[in-house]
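Record now logged for everyone:
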Amino acid sequence: MAESELLTPGAAEDSAEAPDADQRDATGDAGEDQEQAKVAQEPFSRKPAPQTHKPKVRRRYEDSCSGILHDLISRTKSKAEHAELSAADWLFDRLGSVLGPSVFKDAKNMFLREQLAHHFIYEIVNEYKERGIYKKSKVDSWKLQCQALRHMKRDSASIRTLVENFYTVQAMIRNARQGNVDAPPGTESKLLRAEKLEESWARKSPLPKKRGMTDYDQDANSQQASLHGSFLGDTDSRPRSPSLINDSPDSHLPALKVTPKHKFGWVRHRQLQDRLAALDPEYLTPEQHSGQKPAPMQAKMTPGWLNARFTSSSATQAKPKSALWSDAQSTSWRSRRMSAWSLALRDELDDTLSWSNLHLPDTPFVLSSPGSSKLLSGSASLPCLDMSMRDEQQRPSIRPAASGISNIRGKLPAIQDQYINSCKIRVTVPTPVSVIEGSSRLDGRGLMDRELLSILNVLSEAPEFDEIVFSNNQLITDTSLAPFLCRLHEHPMHVNLVTLDLHQCRRAGPASLNAASCLLKDARKLKRFDISGILIAVKFQRPICELVGSHPCLATVNLSQTGLGGNHYAQDCIQAVTSSVSITSLDLSWNTLNPVEMHCLATQVVQSPQIKRLVVDRCSKSAGAGDPSIANLIEILGQDRTLSYLSLALNHIDFKVALVLEDAIEFHPQLREINLRNNPLGTFGMRSLLRLISRSTNFLKTFNCEGCFSGAPDDPTETEERRSVAVFSFTNPCGRYVLDLSRPCQRTMLRMLYKTCERYKVPPDKQFRDMTYSLGQYSHATKSSNVFQVPNCGTLSFTFSVESQLEENMKDIADTDFLGFLKKHFELTRFHPDKAKVVPLFAKWKELDGRLQEQAVFLDALANDFNISVPYLQVLCQCSRATVRMTMKALLPAIPDYGNSRYLALQLFPKIGDFCVTFSRMEQLLLFNAQNPTGHYKLDLSNSPDFAVAQRLLLLDRWESVVNKRYNRLDVSARGNQSHVRNELIGGRPLMATVASVAEWSLPEQGEFELDYVTSVRAAAGAQPLTDSLWEQLMVDMYESDCAPVDKLKVLRSISHLFYISAKHMRQMIGYFHNPLHREEAFVMFYCRISDMQNKKMCCARFGKDEEVSSLRTRLGSAFFFPFLQPENAKFELNLSYNDQRLCGNMIVALGIREKMGNIRDAVWIKADGTEDSFLMGIPRGWETQIPDSGVFKCRYVCSPEDRQFGFRKQLAQKYGYLAQEFSEKDINWWTGLNEPPTDVIDLLEFLISRVQSMDEAFDLIDGGEPGSTANAELTLREFECGVKAMGCKKFEGRDEQARIAAVFRYLDPGGEGTVSKKEWMVLEQLWHEFDLTIKEFVQFLQFAFGPDLSAAWEALDEDGGGELTEKEFLQGAQAIGYFGPAEVVFALLDGSDDGSISYDEFVVLEKYKPARSNQSSKS
């Protein structure tokens, strides 16, 4: 197996350099491909990779291990040689030489995590199955999975075939339309095919000799072909456009090179000079100059009849007469080369005309404006026409030479003869115009004034015209165009006129418009009228529009770029045009229309059911900070039911207007195609467009979004409050809204929220809260014709909440089934592309192949609003194989979280390297555990997997809020807003500084979002933790694993929802993490999974510092982490501005009232102004229910066992802690940590442990120790002092011996009665349990680290080999080997001689603390 199968080209280099993740999604360059191919050919000829450390592999479960990376490796090595290698060996021996160092490190850690996680799951599930907690799997479940796989493959293959077919058909349609704008849709231009064929043959071979052609003809054609190279300044024999002849960017006109040896180079030179002179900047604006595209010279074709008659007599073979009159359409476009007739014409002109003395007018005659809006009548004469006739009479006569035309055999038809003579008079080359060949279609594109006037002279002999096409003819002026149209109007040939196309005849003036209007008035069969690009004076706009609207047959009208709009006639013109009963296609592009005019146009279109095609490109007028005027048109078009094509290109349509489009077209019954080219939609606007095309409620299948993949998400002039909800979130629309209903985009936002209520099937009054309307009382909108009728004025502010829909639609979801909730929610809110729409949607994706930036926007738009199945994802990957990484990373959030969908989706990575490189960007989502979301998150919202995690957390927060309200649970959130999100930061700043709750916040899609999430779910009643033996074995396996501590935490998070643990298990687990942050994360992660929460203090005592406990309280919440059942010796520092910390103050005061107010010690209130209140009169009892909301409250709580009110404490735990377990006082392990009492108490404990077997025995020895006293089950200070001394305790010797003993006595007498009862004395028993457990945990740690023989541990601790360890050396050694815990307590136990050092003989005392289970497990 070659390494190229492990990694796509460029993956190793990408990973080594570690560029930006979005840039890493593309594959490598061609050089990397060649390198990979070379490696594939010689897989074992490379130098061996440097030796890497192979982690310890647990062989007893490695063969049965499973995971994403493991299975990808297994799939890869199964196709290669040496398939017998294990997955681990394959990873470290083969993959390490292909991947870069950083990616290989990530892959290694990933593989170790998968191995450890699989082992944990295997052991846990097996135990729960044996205990009957989990049901055993059945064969039927495997059959269903196999069937699902088979259906998935079938669906993927069928969809891909449909996408390929649809894409091919659409490509053919696009090519046909681009080839010839006049060709009917669905057919390809014949000209385009001919050009492609000719270019193809031109590249392969020289021009062939045609049948019937003489050697002279062949030589002439070859010479003409060579002239292209000579004339254009290169040696390429292929024809080129004159627009390409200027290679120098500094020159305005091309440098024309005419080689004298070529006989007729001057003809091309003169004709091109005439054309380029028309483009002089003094006549054209820069915009017009940049848009000028003169027709190529090779487009001037020669009719067949001229080809035959103007060939030299000595080298001409006459063609049959039938061949001279072949089809005009085919003969006129048959060849691209200059014909022999031009040679004869040139010879005749040389003999009869002196070019230097010929006088031509310098400037064309321009018709002055009539000065009146009245149109010229059909019989009116024009000065320009008279001028053209006079000019024709004044020209010198040119007679053909004897050797030229006189030698032509046969007699020319009259119209051709007249045309040739007219061309001679005007000194212009005859043009192959179709009308000269007898066609009813006059195609005058690429003509100049003299050429058109030549045609004008023979117009009376021409047949009746059906079509007149002068489109893109920017050279003709009123000098020729106006007389031509007038002559056309005078003769009856306009009666059957169907098409009049003056598209982009920019130099046409008022006279031409007048003449065109006369034709429009009298040509009653006219169906197509196009005067686009001709600026119409304001006073002529209304009459022309009235003529257009009153015409009985007009179907297609193009008035683009004619200057409509922005004047007081604009609305009248729009109403006149749209009032037509025949117009089906209307183009008003490039006319600036204000919002009022847009509203008028939309209203008229809605009222004109015959209009099927509407083009309003570049018509929008921006309103500064307001909405573009196009938004007014789109909003009204929601009422239209007849349009089938809509073009909105270049209209400043951003994501807000795109939402208006989505709302308006959602239920359109006829619209098939929409054009949105070059609009700044961006990601947010693209979402609206993709949602629109994916809906089954409309018939939209084709859309053009070229140039729409960039755009800003917000307007900087918007206020912060409005900007926060400017982007509509389809999946989570909750938040605070302030809408200006005078703006179309804001009204659309309101309508979309009403549609959300309709989709959720929840009344609006339940989801709209805290509504305020500037114009008084607001009434909810009603629906008419699928459109919600909302007000168009005033300001409306409200809070939109999704809690009602959650309560309504999630009745069948269990309260703790978070995964089921997310599944149901996304099924309700996300799009499932309609089967009829998924094909055009994916065809658009295929069309974007190779355009990475546009593909990235397309994927981001799909990721947030769509549910993508595995077959759909597979089709997307196959349609664009170069962007597999980017596709998988972006669309992973769209894959359902449940079942095996995500696993199957990740198996779509074609190569292992792709998965390894992409994994770091997907890791947050892959490790997110929806069933146990408690933890700390730091998310990059610009990364779609991270954004998906944030979105899921906010949804779970709302769901848990609904559940808590259902059970009337007390709000213990930090802000009193029912939220489970704490310590939230956005961009490093507190989120609560801008919003009151995350429920009123619209999640942005950029920036860093950091938060703590704490679920309300607790261990259910009867929850069974893992057995101690299994948990101990899992801890051993975790310790022996080569995974880093961070990776171990990731493994624990991924499986934490599968089992419960006890408080003792929690204590053992956090002891394996040396880093305080890792311990904290492990504790928070499993805090809600503790099955015996009443014994929480046992694991909390493992944290030796108050700072660690304070950090846990901050992350979990003061009320949630409150020590309900064992608050003794707890210290509090409460910020009363937070809701949960005020609740803690309420509980402390409530406990003091019911147990003893004196239990609250060292109380002080630091007010907001800095003053302190030490409560000299005591803490007010009113603080039990009402406590100040500012300042800081500090105190410490103590309580004697006699004052303990267990029943009340249990109520607090159930009310504030949501505990569901049933337990009694006997079920509690009363506990005291070694960090709680003073140091002297610990010294006394150490002394008593070495002297007595139990604390009862010590109490009995001390009780009655005072002379003259008797044992009465109580100790006085005097008895305690005498008894300690009588036992020989020297721990307190010194000047302050008596004071130190008194301090110990006061600690043992928390009630302050002056005596210590036996129950109070038993706090030493609790300390003894903690002491004993600490020693056992230390011994267990040594066994895990060094094995069952403690001598190895001693050698590790005694690095200098001195044979003794001081306390400092012992503490440093314990820290060096990774032990976390009170090591000083262990040292005090071992230092039995109290000399400040321990020897090996003293160290082996730990042998008796070895757990029996540990010995067995270690030996095994």
Q: What stands out?
A: Residues 498 and 526 are 4 Å apart (CA to CA). The first strand starts at residue 441 and ends at 443. The chain is about 45% helix and 5% strand.
